[in-house]
Amino acid sequence: MTYLAKPKFHHPALPKNEHGFTHRDYEGSISTLCAGCGHDSISAAIIQACFELNIEPHRLAKLSGIGCSSKTPDYFLGQSHGFNSVHGRMPSVLTGANLANKQLIYLGVSGDGDSASIGLGQFMHCVRRSVNMLYVTENNGVYGLTKGQFSATADRGSTSKAGGTNNDSALDLVGLALQIGATFVARSFSGDKKQLVPLLMAGLSHPGPAFIDVVSPCVAFNNHAGSTKSFEFVRAHNEAVNRLDFMDAREPITVDYEPGTSTEVALHDGSKLRLAKLHGDYDPHNRIAAMNYLQSRAAAGELVTGLIYLDDNPRDMHSMLNTVDVPLNGLGEKELCPGSATLDKINASLR
Amino acid sequence: MPPTNIKDPNYFHKVVDCQWACPAHTPVPEYIRLIAAGRYSDAYMINWHSNVFPGVLGRTCDRPCEPACRRGRVEEGAKTAQPVAICRLKRVAADNKSDIRDRLPVAPAQKNGKRIALIGAGPASLTVARDLLPLGYTCVLYDQDPGAGGMMRTQIPKFRLPEAVLDEEVNYILGLQPELRLGQRVSSLKAIVDEGYDAIFVGCGAPRGRELEMPGRKEAAANIHIGIDWLASVSFGHTTKIGKRVIVLGGGNTAMDCCRTSRRLGGDEVKVVVRSGFEEMKASPWEKEDAMNEGIPILNFLVPKEFRHDNGTLTGVVFEKVKAEYDAKGRRSLVASGEPDVHIECDDVLVAVGQENAFPWIERDLGIEFDRWDMPKVSATTMQSTNPKIFFGGDAAFGPKNIIWAVAHGHEAAVSIDLHCSGNNVNVRPSPLTNLSSQKMGIHEWSYDNGISPDNRYKVPHAPPEVTLKDVRLEVELGFDVKQAFLEAERCLNCDVQTVFEGPKCIECDACVDICPMDCITFTPNGPERELRQQLTAPSTHPETQDLYLSEALKTGRVMVKDEDLCLHCGLCAERCPTGAWDMQKFLFNTAKAGCHV
User: Fold this and answer.
1) Do B210-353 and B497-590 fold alike per CATH?
2) Which among B164, B379, B470, B572 is most buried, taking Cβ atoms within 10 Å?
3) ipTM of the assembly?
């Protein structure tokens, strides 16, 4: 952390997006995390993704729980809506907010403790209900705020900074998300913004439950030999199945792939992401195959990253509940309290 | 692109834009920090060692440092961005210092037996004297005027440079006891050579004001004056008044001094008339501003044609109206606009259209070669002429420049003379003295103030014109007070506190990339510089101004590339670095002075 606020001066030739903002306008207050924390890189990637997506800051709500990861929404999108909830309860608050106003973009930020331990049930039900959101876990495999005990996502056999070995099985959030109905599932690494930023952009634009697990080394407690969440280990065992490239509508397309090796992902603002295959015949549209592939690579000690699963026909909780489009705060008293005659009518229909 | 060699003293020196731009390479940020700390005497001494006349330069310097100042590139809005007021901060050090005489060097009682003649007692010669006298040299100072100081005394008006300030700093050097031959015009260099000096330094300036030959010049001569001669006459008190209506011809700093002096000697309607456009005038922008603030209009695109007179009494000047036209190569020419000529009535004209060197007193058989512009051939690094014993400096060397150049020439000439007199090769220059040391005091503590002040440049307060216009010797600028000086000093970005990167310690976590407020840092595969500049996190806006700082290959095979151009030296990269791969280290650079041998 630093005591010094980041100077307001910025590079005079910074590009501006459609709203006249530079990426600096998407920053928040100065981070109080440890120097070198992977979470800060994820914050920077979120800033970049929102900048490139031309998101108006007041159209986005960022929600989090408790933990190092859940502190980070203070460090990006200072002009957006935010809610820092109880430990592990962010998914419920996000679901409630989304029910009340489906017109905002929802970004849930959580960590391995907040989502894989205390909030595991909440995480699963939120995904299961198909809430339209991007759910990001900043996954470092340790409880950093309490000095580095193993978390539920720490791999069996990995060692702690103090030297102990983890004997418990690891919980795989990506596997769970695939199983319970997330329609966009990805994994990435805080140290690879080229991969992470386009994935965040695609996830934010996805009209259904999107989940990205970002491995984020804890420089204070989990960046040593024997850790499977360190910079060196992840770089050595990272197996990217594909690569996303953001294509700005204003610029000509420069990336060229052989026919049949790439597909396009449309974003909400009309621009597109191009998905390039890096790994032979991996098909991100086949959920069962994706789950099998993940398991087999994990058994080989590799970490699969990239866009793992994408459902081209996502579901959204609102479409199933048939809710109104207008946010509840935009409805008048007449619509919200239609009167006893309407109540009688509803009661009669249920008799 | 190969990794940057930060051991090359020029690498980090170039990052310190102000010091790099200063001809004397004064360690600017170092003394600005001392001013902020209230250590005015220490700040003064840093200046004194480097530029010899801090009080004079703090009022009159041409400030090549300020256009170079990084602040002008990083402040919001390129048009309103302003450099740190480096020059006027220097004056603060001079104004607020305590008695520093016990810090000055003394000339040894035992001389080394070498005798050096210094022709002209201006800034260049005085610098040579100051550098050589403490080493035991005997210096003999010649000047046509009765007082030492050269153009600083004769040409700069007292309302810009009070006599007391000049006297104080000239006297520091005269206190080293050079032999004085003042009031003695040198009319033959051969005569000096024949006196058997071990070396001779010519620092006689560019003493001749350029003439303007046109109809009426001879007839109306009584009311047409050459600018620098007239200024000298005012300076010595020979001239005390001028006509009510004055035209100053010329657009340089001498013209500005002429018009402002006229306003104080009875000129009620003073006009400056220039051939070129207002923007292309040679005068410094602040000098033009000061003149206009005193109610002096500057009329442009007017070429003088004729002096009008009534039986030898000047009545006015006729000008042809012109306009600028540019050819395909962008070269400007002034062509007649076709409009009728303009006649401006006046009582006196001051001609300030340039200065020339004049060496009628140098015999051409002394082994000094002259070029086709009749200027001596002088080495720009050693200041030596083709006669190995004779050195040149200041305006005498390469034509009219300014005081700070004269000082820089003086230092280099002194080094050369010392090398020459001790039997060394003057072309093998002693290396500069450098020091690089970490500024880390604690986890978030640095021994410099790394906070970035968002303030705009502070204005130096002026005395009211109704007072200053009445007295040609009353200083106009009041100088910053201590409080303003602190706030202005805080605007300095400490560009000498360098971001030093140690590749082997880096874990490539991107923390520095993410925190950098100016997006200076990039991790990328290596390539030729042109390609690297395309791949930076933020565009490279001034590739000619600053270099790229490149690490050796890191663990992932990539390199760290830092664009030095817009770095704020805020140290956030080092604060966010988990491994100490980044560190903030102060780079001190002093040019070698006489006495330093290889």
Assistant:
1) no
2) B572
3) 0.90
